[in-house]
Amino acid sequence: MERLQPYLERGSRALYAASAVCLLVIVVLMVARIASRNLSLGLGGVQILAQLFEVWLTFLVVGALAYTHDHIEIEYLSDRLPERWVPIHEIAVTLVSLFAAVLVLVGAILAMDSFWNSTAPTIDIPIPLYYLAPIVGMGFLVVVYLDRLHESVTEVLA
Predict the structure, then answer these.
(1) What is this structure's pTM?
(2) Domain locations in the chain?
(3) Average per-residue pLDDT in the chain?
(4) How confident is residue 38, by pLDDT bands cut at 50, 70 and 90?
(5) Which of 15, 19, 109, 139 could join 61 via S-S bond, C-beta 3.0 to 4.6 A?
(6) DSSP per-residue string spanning the chain
(7) Contact yes or no for 16/141 (Cβ under 8 A)
């Protein structure tokens, strides 16, 4: 799995870059919405478009944060474990996290399939674009968790 690291690194950087673009677009859209409301410009659907980018921002950054170990982690229990239990604890936590990520990923795939021909109100954004975000983000997260699981199991067996 060591060969996977350069791809995960590049993927993480790409997800961070894409999430930064999403954040910039959200700011621009919210400024446009405020200006439209205060100046009576009548720009419709700006908030719905911003929500689409918010969904993308959320899911793009999840996998990247997990890869760089920058996610929120409660270390109260793990800091008190004996050293020999730490790898086993990491395996257990990774398995639970992997299960949750796969659950969200499968749910997004099923939802995308169910709403394949639907569009969002006002500006006709295809609903599958909303569900593509968790597929991309959680797909990357699942790969990160599988890589981490492989490393932890290798460490325990060594």
Answers:
(1) 0.84
(2) 2-157
(3) 88
(4) confident
(5) 19
(6) -GGGHHHHHHHHHHHHHHHHHHHHHHHHHHHHHHHHHHHT----SHHHHHHHHHHHHHHHHHHHHHHTT-S----TTGGGS-GGGHHHHHHHHHHHHHHHHHHHHHHHHHHHHHTTT-B-TTT--BTHHHHHHHHHHHHHHHHHHHHHHHHHHHHHH-
(7) no
